[in-house]
Amino acid sequence: MDRRDFIKMLGLAGTSAAAYTACSAYMQEALAQSTTIEDLLTSAAECPGGKLADIEHVVILMQENRSFDHYFGTLRGVRGFGDPRPLRLRNGNPVWEQSDGARPYRLPKLQAHESGIDGETIPADSAGSVFMADPAHGYDTGLYAWNGGLMDQWKEYKDYVSFAHYTEADIPLYFKLAKAFTLCDAYFCSHNGATDSNRSYFWSGTCNGLAANAFFSSKVGPRPAWKTYPEKLEDLKIDWKFYQDGLTWTNDAFAGNYGDNTLEFFKEYGDKTTALYKKNQSVNSVLRTDANKPSQFEQDIVDDKLPEVSWIVPAEAFTEHPKYPPHFGEYYVHEILRAFAANKKVWHKTLFLITYDENGGFFDHVLPPVPPLNSGLGQVSPGIKVTSPSVARDFNSEHPDKVSGDPVEDAKYEKVKPTIPLGMGSRVPMLVISPWSAGGRVNSETFDHTSVIRFLDKWLIARGKQDAATPAFSTISSWRQAIAGDLTSTFDFSRTRTEGLDKLIAPGEKATILTDANRTSARAANLAFFTPGIADVKADAYAGKPIGTKQDKTRCEILPIGYDFQVCFRFGTHGDGKKRVEWVIRNRGALGAAFYVTPYSRTDAPSWYYSVEGVKPGGKPIEVMDYAQIANGVYEHAIHGPNGYLFEFSGDSLDAQQTQLPNIIEMKSADDGKKLQIVFEKWQTASSKLKLIDAYSGTEQVIDKAKEVSGTTTVEIATKDGWYDVAVVDGVNANNFLRRYAGHLENGKISKSDPAIGLEYDAKKRAYIGMVA
């Protein structure tokens, strides 16, 4: 069916269920075959190498309620379902295998919905068109599912619907964008809760402890009154605009903006005489209502009148918030992309960001960075300020002030508020679309919603619109400034050649519209949403197989990021004279990093949290140190960090042979990241040996005192494009001694994704099963 036939059909369809069926089928076909992305890529190829200041327009779209694994867990090259180093639950299972048989499964694509119109049913053409139940996604259930970092209560508090996911066949446009531009696989929502608090971070850098929608859209309590970023733009006389087809929330899912323009609930936006109010509360259409007449957004692009900063806020049906399906959002995004393609000169100087306010209750397996709120929960390095819950609140506070709009309900949390972090929450998608992010690459630097503000600040400095010494936006906490990046690593301004792009073809031209008939049928389908259950989990094509087999094993290019840290282990002596295990997290890189320490040998604590700031130019490495007491001599811990980093250490402190084995005191890059150097401390006995096993190659080597030089022993192993996974075990005795290090060495250059993605790790052989040399 071509576009003209589609539009003609819509005009004749009336209000039958066939209108929605045809619309859904058309979306699936058109989005999969769309040439708009190829057109943008072809045009992007015309752009020379550039710099940040060459971006003249930033357009930002924040969608609703989808997690990263839920959308992109099967995509090649990302830390998705094939993550070779996932968190291990306390019961020994990988994090995917939750209670009561819950695990990720593809959403069924043939679910039929009662349309409510003449008794007809609407078959879904793919999972991307299924109207699905909305998982629980409040702050309370978010905290329970996270469970202090154990990540083992998702089924109990989110149910089976949480584990549904899509594939490329279901959301073809988004996969096509990810394979054409840059996708961030370590972008987290700012708050482990619902929409308004996250959107407050997005537009103002904080939620100021207000952890529920009630304090924003439900207008409980005084209006938020801290400064927002559009106010700063107004002060700087930077042109900004909201594109929205309607205002506020309405009963009609195709009208208004679903209340997602959270700024309207702030005090400063309530005065109808101000520019803030007028700009925020203006209707500037994004979608065409006439197939032959451009929307305001299109017209601004055609006329080269796009403002410097634009935010797009769609109506409910296009936000992708369940129960509305992804295809409606893809349609909306496609129309935005088609508008960019209408004026290549504007496109050549434009950045388009697509992200999601929250995970919406959908499962994601990666541990979200969180700060320790007191020393019993972990440590932060000296340059990071986290305001204690015991003193007056300020913008460095990372604990909740109010959890619920109901005072009685809120009082239930009074005792735990000082120990529960506001966030970050789960990963959500972030697509970076511009001529300088073309290439289908992945960026794994840690970001959250405050990163968008950080980027805008950096960009304004590059454009000469504010002084280079301007401090960070005042509401963004010290911890987030240290741990979340500013998005500048998502670009390749050198225009490095990208391998493997398909031949590009000519662009499409026509717009599509959704008629009243379409919308009526969709509203009816929304009332007959599908709630998945255990039967759908069991019906998954990969049921009974490792979750990693779901992910495409094709490798892709990854962008360089500024991480350079290591974790070292040592024994210490506690105040009672007993041995204890100690770990030192040493950061040598420009980026700050957050870590979890999970003690599997102890059940009296979930996890501990650590954050280390980045090193300033010319500065020395920054360290934090902590320890754990040992019960009965046995210890077993895992430390997870950014970009798939893992350090596991286990053993028996009462075993004299183990305690005489040398510790690793340094791990560093050699030969531009092609090799990893491992430095051991002085040997205590000549009879001891260590065996080092490279999980990527399967090779083993024995290390002993004979290799010691000047009191240390240095060993080199070859990496796989910077990736390493090395296990060190006792080379003489069969016991529980283990030091396992895995991660990626950065060299400032574009590299390739982890070759172990999609493979199983054999914990006995300490190697990846099926690794190709």
TrEMBL record:
BP terms from Gene Ontology: lipid catabolic process
Tagged with keyword Ligase: no
Keywords assigned by UniProt, alphabetized: Hydrolase
Domain of life of the organism encoding this protein: Bacteria
Residue span, Bacterial phospholipase C C-terminal domain: 561-652
Residue span of region Disordered: 389-410
Biased composition (Basic and acidic residues): 395-410
GO molecular function ontology, one term from the record: phospholipase C activity
Protein name, entry field: Phospholipase C
Organism annotation: Phyllobacterium bourgognense
Upper classification of the organism: Bacteria, Pseudomonadati, Pseudomonadota, Alphaproteobacteria, Hyphomicrobiales
